[in-house]
Amino acid sequence: DGLSRSYILYIPGSYQEGNPLVMNFHGYTSNALDQLLYSDFTALANEHGFLVAHPQGTADLLGNSHWNVGWGASTVDDVSFTSALIDTLAANYAINLARVYSTGMSNGGFFSYRLACELSGKIAAIASVTGTMATGTMDSCSPEHPMPVMQIHGTNDPTVGYDGGSLFEPIEDVVDYWVTENNA
Question: Which of 6, 16, 106, 137 is spaced 20 to 30 Å from 167 by Cα?
Fold first, then answer.
């Protein structure tokens, strides 16, 4: 869409053709470097031989970096950006396209759920940390395969409440949704 986008890529010392790829998305107002440092996947990537991409979101109307999870005024096509980034990384690093995973913190966790619904042909599994699904996402979600999901969330989260809110689903409803969807 005419945007210049960036990412930080960590390549383990044990890199070889066919390694998995983890897409690691930052939270609202954060950035790719903060997510790299905060999540600290480098030791795990070295031990288990996977690449980690830390994409950078774009500025919203308030100037805060974010991922478009389907609400608000954002029109940035982050799903297509992610798809193109996966294709680019696969072409340059011969990653295992059957083993591309998405994880994210808060807004990045919300976005991982969006990818599970809208880019499941390229995403094998997701993990959301303090994120959930935007309201209405379940109604339009249609993954191409059973989607393994890991949800990490606390009941005392003051930002993304465990029991949901006007813009997002309760955690237990999200987990129930994926249990049902994956057993259908």
Answer: 6
CB–CB of 85/115 below 8 Å? no
User: What is the b/e burial string over 114-127, where b = at least 16 CB atoms within 10 angstroms of the residue's CB?
Assistant: bbbbbbbebbbbbb
Residue 127 has φ and ψ, to the nearest 5°, of: -140, 130
Tens digit of pLDDT for each residue in 73-103?
A: 789 999 999 999 999 999 999 999 999 999 9
For the stretch 20-35, pLDDT in tens is: 999 999 999 999 999 9
How many angstroms separate the CA atoms of 99 and 141, rounded? 21
Single pTM value for the model: 0.96
Tell me if 54 sits within 8 A of 32, measured CB to CB.
Answer: yes
Q: Can you list the alpha helix ranges (DSSP code H) found in the chain? A: 32-39, 42-48, 78-93, 107-118, 137-140, 171-183
Crossing angle of helices 78-93 and 107-118, in 10° steps, is: 80
Distance between CA 52 and CA 58 in Å, rounded?
A: 19
